Each structure stands twice: as structure tokens, then as C-alpha cells.
Amino acid sequence: MVVQSPVRSGKKSAPATASIRYDDASVRKVPFSDLRLADFTWSVPWRSFRSVRGQTHHSGRYASATMAGPVVYESRLELARLLLADMDPAVRGI
Q: Are residues 43 and 73 in the same domain?
């Protein structure tokens, strides 16, 4: 999902939108006020997970109990935040 800030044109601003990419390569822009969980049913990530020998960052997959499956991370900082979120009982989704 890509989030776009409101564009200020004069005194009125356009609503903030989310761009959602689907598995058939289509992209749909949805205003935040109209955004529903069902909009993400067939969505796919914008970036693909890559790993090559000698890369400078540490990416991987974390087996999340909250999500009941793997969650991709791209840095040690993201992994640390995943660990904190996974152990927080208030978190329902990552």
C-alpha cells in the first residue's frame, strides 16, 4: 500500500488516498475515509523480498505468532520492531 498525503490547492485540500496493488497488476486509489479491510483481500506487496550474497543489509523472514506465519523484514531495526509488536498483546496484526 502506498499512502499519498493530501495535496493543497488553494484553500481546499484533496483527501489522502491509499494506492493498493492487486495480483492482476491493477492499482486502485482509495480515499482513507472509504478504506475497508475487504479492499486488501487480493492485494500484493509493492516490493519483492530479495536476498543476495554480500548484501549490506540484513533481511529475512520472521515467524510471527500474531500473524500465524512469516513476516518479511528488510533490516535489523524492522526485526526489532517486529519482535516488540509480536509480544504486545494489544497488537492484532502486523
A: no
CA dist., res. 36 & res. 20, Å (int):
12
Residues 6+ apart with CB under 8 A from 23: 42, 43, 44
**Whole domain around residue 60: which residue ranges?**
56-94
Set of cell numbers at residue 6: 493530501
CA nearest to 45, candidates 77, 29, 28, 23: 23
**pLDDT tens figures, 9-50:** 555 677 888 889 998 989 999 998 898 888 888 888 777 666
pLDDT digits (tens, 9 = 90+) for 55-75: 777 888 889 999 888 888 888
Task: Kindly state whether residues 2 and 29 are assigned to the same domain.
Answer: yes
Number of domains in the chain: 2
Please provide residue 85's backbone torsions phi and psi, each rounded to the nearest 5 degrees. -65, -35
